[in-house]
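Marked as duplicate of an earlier ticket. Keeping the data here for the record.
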Amino acid sequence: MPQLIGGRPYALVTYGEPFFDDLTARLSHMAGAPTLIVNDVAPNPDCRLLTAQCRRFAEASSRAEVIVALGGGSVIDSAKVFAAAGGDFTWVRRFLETKDGADALTATPIIAVPTTAGTGSEVTCWATVWDEANEKKYSLARPSLYPEAALIDPLLMCGKPRALTISTGLDALSHALESLWNVNANPVSANHAVAAARRIIDTMPKLAGDLDNVALRSDMAIASLSAGLAFSNTKTAIAHSLSYPLTLRHNLPHGIACSFSLPMILRSMRGADGLCGEALARIFGGDIDRGAAELGNLLHTLGVSTDPKCYGVGVDEWHVLIAEALMGERGQNFLGSKNALLKSALPQAA
């Protein structure tokens, strides 16, 4: 880290927990004290909190020339907002809501150090921004927001709670699969996705029962990185489009919200050909229905239901959400058909 910071004044974005307090102290000893510490990051970075946090950058005694993001996806996403805001969230909000004002956005370099294996935000150029007051979700997407460096250390992931490990791991699995049934898929992204999905499916059940196993944490870190490289090429698709209202309206953690529908979506891809069909066959074999059943069993083994009713979503609402999700920006990346997806949803909602 000191070599990457290179003596530049830096801001540190992290969590306000003892584990991260210790890392903050160690980093300060090795690289000098940060000009600003933001350690009140929320799980779903919201416009209201981000507004206050951005103001702290404007009020800092000296300007940070680089931002160190040490934490999970919410930390890295928040750091990207700070990098673009230049101390004033108003400019970011204007860009998110209108797509105007790009010239006013800044591009402070970011060093990303993920402490979970899931979001892949350390290798993407976008950040998720939530507006809970208006039940909206935005994606801040700027080529300048790719971190200048990403450090992946599985030791930082050891000891994370089981629920967090499962949720973030399933987020990575969703990233991998979402990049395959995607209009933007290409051979390079597909290879990353297949490698990630295979490794996650093999590793997750083992890791859920052995949270301090460094080898398993390493496998998940590699898989999450591969999934991040896959969907950094393609963006996500229908499962993520479905997940946003589930998180906003039903308080479902993002990793669960974007993964419990994966077996349903996989079933709807029966008969898929081309790059998508070939890649799915490399993961699940030639029988999509059998692959969907195995994927459902994996989720159930991890304690994740594939039934929307378990999350307070009735049959009618579920079908409305699917139709709306297909019309969303991410939903329009989906290669499959509406009819096949709705047909596939019937057993899940019965």
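See parent ticket for discussion. The domain at 161-349 is CATH 1.20.1090.10 (Dehydroquinate synthase-like, alpha domain).
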